[in-house]
Amino acid sequence: MIFQKYIGPDMFLWIRHYVVEVCAPLSSLLVIAGIITFSGVFCNRTFDLYACWPDTFPGNKATVPCPWYLPWIDSGKSYRVCAIDGHWLRVGNSSLIWKDHSECEDMELWKTLQMIYTIGYSLSFFSLALSIFILLSLR
């Protein structure tokens, strides 16, 4: 997979490479080649720190594959809706833009990680409590 060459401690490095390799070339190629020429009202392309969203006509749903910088995802898609007024659909009356990335989440992975850190914190807490008890009893 593409993301394997960016494995490292810094997630922002993966995201930066994603933007450089996916978003920027997509935008410039489409405009230079004249493949897409939008005029009038539309939701413009953007990167929301999750995925690159293409120009989308009002009333349509934008669909993009899950970002490759998420190493636990092999397939799936994210969705965003372009409202009739040419702005991305928002969550209720907030400024947050709605998106559905449920296909890009691995709930089993998160449950496993939650169990691991719960056990780790519990062992740490009991070790600390035991050491304080021993320290106070030897005093």
Automatic annotation (TrEMBL):
Lineage top rank: taxon: Eukaryota
InterPro entries: GPCR_2 (IPR050332), GPCR_2_extracell_dom_sf (IPR036445), GPCR_2_extracellular_dom (IPR001879), GPCR_2_secretin-like_CS (IPR017983)
UniProt entry tagged with the keyword Membrane: yes
GO molecular function terms attached to this record: glucagon receptor activity; peptide hormone binding
Alphabetical keyword list: Membrane, Transmembrane, Transmembrane helix
SMART domains recorded: HormR
Transmembrane segments: 18-41, 115-138
Gene Ontology cellular-component annotations: plasma membrane
Pfam families the record matches: HRM
G-protein coupled receptors family 2 profile domain mapped to chain residues: 22-108
GO biological process entries: adenylate cyclase-modulating G protein-coupled receptor signaling pathway
Name of the featured protein: G-protein coupled receptors family 2 profile 1 domain-containing protein
Organism listed in the record: Eptatretus burgeri
